[in-house]
Every structure is written in structure tokens, then in C-alpha cells.
């Protein structure tokens, strides 16, 4: 099945924006917290791609500097409303932007976080390469997502739901292997962690480190 089209996502998240916090906030809570905790350990300048309504702001503090981007104008508008509360002075910038074409110079961030977004983008490999480009050497990409079950009944159900899920801006059938393959072929990033998020293990946290030097193909 093809990657989701950008326009489909924009349309879907325009509809999600007013109800997202109530319906999706609690569902993704433990995944978001795990990713933000891992990002916090890296610290410094953090870019969140697909920041959505800014639900993760509560998971950061003044020791970090957060930049958020999202392709959906209505989702970013919600994040700006949250920012206007004055509770998040460490959030530096929120912009409407496609994660596959980041408008930031090379090596501008210490960490790039993607919470429940990498499976939704048109061309995840391009997005990952953009994330790696804007990272300083030694910086990390941290992703959290539901990833494809690969075998068994869950895999069959996910494939069945896939087509309908796409229209509402979800994608249950995305294999971990695709992320691992990207890291192997990229030359400037290495996979450093893959773990299930406790307590239920529904979500997977994946970390990559930007290499200090590009690997040269043998
Ligand atoms: C499931 S929501 C997750 C939002 C937030 N990260 C959270 O965990 O609450 C997915 C978000 O990714 C955004 N998105 C989808 N494709 C994108 C792209 N190509 N570039 C940037 N954001 C994108 C959507 O607009 C949406 O806000």
C-alpha cells in the first residue's frame, strides 16, 4: 500500500483539530511521555515534527528549547492557543511546515522528536533524512509510534483496517523494518534503540543517533 498523500493528512487533521485533545490525548499519553523523557535526556534544542496541538509541551521544561512544526494549519493554531497561556516559555517557535522539507539549516538541533507522525507522512525516508540533516553530529532522532505487528492475528486486522484508517489520518500497517532500512542506507545515522513502551507495549520507541562522521559506502 502507498504512503498516505499529504493532502489526505491535511484534510484529516483539519477535522481532528477541534476534538484531538479530548479523543487522542489520553490514548497516546504514555507514548508521548516516553518520547519526551528520552528527548529531555538529550536536552538542548529540540524540534518536534508533527507537533499537533502541542499536547507534549507539558512534558518539557525550561532546560530545553522547543520548536514545533506541523503540516496542518488548524493543529498549529491549537498549539498556538496553548502557548498563549504563558505556561510554556521554553517553546520558541511553532510553524506550519512539511517535515519532508524542513526550513532549517543543517545541524540546528540537538534532538528531533516525532510522536505518532512518521507512519503518516508521504515518504518517511525523506522525512528521516531531513531530520538527520537538521541534527548536530551526535544528536538524536526519537520516534514513538504504533508499528505494524508483522505477524499473527493483529497483523491481519491491521491490514484489514488500513484503507479506512488512512482516510481519517491514521495508519496501522507500518513495519519497523522500514525505519531500520533507512538507517542502514543513510550512512549518517545509526539505530541505537528499539523498545516497547510500558505498561502495555502497544507503542514502540525508536532512537537513532546522527553519526559524528558519514559512513563511506564499501
Ligand atoms: C497523530 S497526530 C500526532 C500529534 C502529536 N505529535 C501528538 O502526539 O499528539 C499526527 C500529526 O502529524 C501531522 N503531520 C502529518 N503529516 C505531516 C508532515 N508531512 N509534516 C508535518 N506534520 C505532519 C498531522 O497534521 C498531525 O498533527
Automatic annotation (TrEMBL):
Domain called Methyltransferase type: residue spans: 47-143
Molecular function terms, GO-annotated: S-adenosylmethionine-dependent methyltransferase activity
Keyword Transferase (UniProt): yes
Keywords: Methyltransferase, Transferase
Example of a GO biological process term: methylation
One Pfam family cited in the UniProt record for this chain: Methyltransf_11
UniProt name for this protein: Methyltransferase domain-containing protein
Organism: Pseudolabrys taiwanensis
